[in-house]
Amino acid sequence: MSQRPARPSLGLRILRFLITRIVLGSILLGLGMTLGQMLIASLLQSFALASPEWVNILVAVGLSLSLYTLFVRMVEGRPATELSLRHGGEFVQGLAPGALVFSAVVGILWLLGVYRVLGSNALSVLAQSLAIGLIPGFVEEIFFRGVLYRIIEESLGTWIALIITSVLFGFAHAGNPNASLFSSVAIAIEAGLMLGIGYTLTRRLWLSIGIHTAWNFVQGGVYGVNVSGIDVPGVLVSELVGPAWLSGGGFGAEASVVAVLVCLALFAVLLRQTYRRGRLVLPFWARQRV
């Protein structure tokens, strides 16, 4: 007669409860990133060393990867398979759709007379854009999709996780320059849904990180459009004209209805693939009835 598996202890069940894991993950990543970056900056200052953009990138990316791996190992007692280097090629696969989707947004705005090119800059401006692509691409995806979305989806299912984390992601940008209620809602719909379903499709973070990185990099570095309200010099010097709902105003094209519609199209493509692979997760109460 087979024995029933031993039930985890009360302490372990509390530790691995949804709310507990989210709180611990948020504290570890938030506090760890802050203290780690402060320590590196202090060391560089002590030795009178410069802090070029590539150092900031390495520190932020390295800390986010290390802290998340530590969190999963210590709290969940497993390896961080969603960041397995064996599937790191999915990061590269995500770069193309991220770049193409924003290029489509700019192309449509250009055809409508909303996006205008005024001049150009030297290629050296791409260094800053690389940072604003890679740092949020890794740090935000590891927190919003790795901690929040993944843990919520495990319990409440894909659709509830998409709604909750998309709203949180959108309004996390509410404090950015030139932000508005519409810009927060737009970010929630276009990025929250698109990046969340990217994780669900692969069960790994690399695809979403790649899409997010390329979206930011191309937006600021190539087309010279504000990235979530932040002015980033690009190879092209440009301007957005017309009503804010169409151009995005000072926040940038992410707050344009065009971006919302284009990103929803990519979301629909990824959702279809996710559904066909049977990757959608039901909420726990629906799973109990199956």
Largest sheet: 2 strands, antiparallel
* Uncertain segments: none
Elements, N to C (H/E): HHHHEHHHHEHHH
Q: What integer value in Å does the Rg equal? A: 20 Å
Residue share in β-strands: under 5%
Q: Roughly what is the average pLDDT, rounded to an integer?
A: 92
How far apart lie the N and C ends?
26 Å
Structural class: mainly alpha
Number of strands: 2
Give the number of domains.
Answer: 1
Helix content: 55-70%
- Biggest β-sheet: strands ordered side by side in the sheet: 1-2
Number of helices: 11
Structural shape: globular
Q: Which descriptors apply to this entry?
A:
290 residues, mainly alpha, 11 helices, 2 strands, 68% helix
